[in-house]
Write a structure and sequence with these properties.
There is one protein chain. Helix content is 48%, strand content 17%. It has eight helices and nine strands. Helix 2 runs antiparallel to helix 4 and helix 3 packs across helix 4.
């Protein structure tokens, strides 16, 4: 009986320690549960989305890329630090404190192309220079050769197959898709940018950023716009946005 009386308190103490440990473990797992965070990368001072950016979780080591619209999503634990990198832009780090959408503005640095620093050029000039570089490297059709090249009499079958399967044309083909997308985004930026939105709406700060993200028109929408169309769209959209803030 004495032995049992001595063991029981020890067992109770052990059980309580085990219970506390399990509760702490479960609690830490719940706290550290992965959340899927969405975000967009934008060039600071413009409304131009940044494609092919690299977003790395410094805690987990996982990394994702931004798509053609600058959008990305990545799993994180609250408190994790994200590193955002893009060639020719200044890298940035942010700490994720919630599962809300993230707006990331990267500052453009000097553009380097084949060890030549290109300064003072507009974005469209930078893109056109890269297209010319692919031609200088031998890809004249940007990876999409015309069928006429297959004619051995007045064409060049070798050029046709090189454009289809060569490494440089493959890169040129991918860049052409990026180039076309950038032109569309710049066209949108002409009619939907922070300067114009701030001029015709009272939005500012985080609400302005959120509005720019949620109500950005598509390239197809602005295809035939003029300034009147743009201002009208901004005012109507801002009214809808203000209604959502009231709810």
């Amino acid at each position: 009986m004495l032995i049992l009386q001595e063991i029981k308190p020890k067992m109770r103490a052990f059980f309580l320690l085990w219970l506390v440990f399990m509760l702490m473990t479960i609690g830490s797992r719940i706290y550290a549960q992965d959340v899927l965070v969405k975000g967009v990368i934008i060039e600071k001072g413009t409304n131009i989305r940044i494609a092919l950016g690299v977003i790395s979780n410094k805690h987990s080591g996982k990394a994702v890329g931004s798509n053609d619209l600058g959008l990305f999503n990545i799993k994180v634990n609250l408190g994790d630090t994200l590193l955002i990198e893009k060639r020719n832009f200044v890298s940035q780090q942010i700490v994720v404190n919630s599962n809300k959408d993230i707006l990331i503005y990267l500052i453009r640095s000097s553009v380097t192309l084949d060890e030549v620093t290109v300064k003072g050029k507009t974005k469209i000039e930078d893109l056109q220079e890269i297209r010319k570089e692919f031609k200088r490297q031998g890809s004249f059709y940007e990876g999409k050769p015309p069928l006429a090249l297959l004619n051995p009499l007045n064409g060049s079958p070798l050029t046709f197959f090189y454009e289809l399967f060569g490494k440089t044309p493959a890169k040129a083909r991918r860049f052409k898709r990026y180039y076309d997308k950038e032109l569309q985004l710049m066209q949108v930026d002409n009619f939907f940018n922070k300067t114009l939105v701030s001029k015709h709406t009272p939005l500012e700060g985080k609400n302005l950023d959120k509005f720019m993200l949620e109500y950005s028109p598509t390239a197809e929408m602005v295809k035939h716009w003029n300034n009147y169309d743009a201002v009208n769209y901004i005012k109507l959209s801002a009214k809808k946005f203000a209604d959502t803030l009231k709810n």
